[in-house]
Write a structure and sequence with these properties.
Cro/C1-type_HTH; Helix-turn-helix transcriptional regulator; mainly alpha; 69 residues; Lambda_DNA-bd_dom_sf
Length: 69
């Protein structure tokens, strides 16, 4: 994982055999927004991470990298 990867969204989606498109549909968001989160070009808010965790049925901490730069 690159040092600037702040979230693990893409990893969790792969582990659950789900796509960014699927998540976009669940969240009623533009797929481009989800793509930016998955590639760490943008970061979701904590409130959004909470919603994603609920949808994916994981802990919020599972979606956040614990590696330090």
């Amino acid at each position: 994982m690159a040092k600037n990867d702040l979230n693990r969204l893409k990893v969790v989606l792969v582990e659950q055999h789900k796509t960014a498109k699927w998540l976009a549909e669940q969240m009623e968001k533009d797929p481009a927004t989800i793509s930016k989160w998955c590639t760490n070009k943008a970061q979701p808010s904590l409130e959004t991470i909470k919603k994603i965790a609920e949808i994916l049925q994981v802990k919020m901490s599972d979606l956040v990298s614990n590696e330090r730069p």
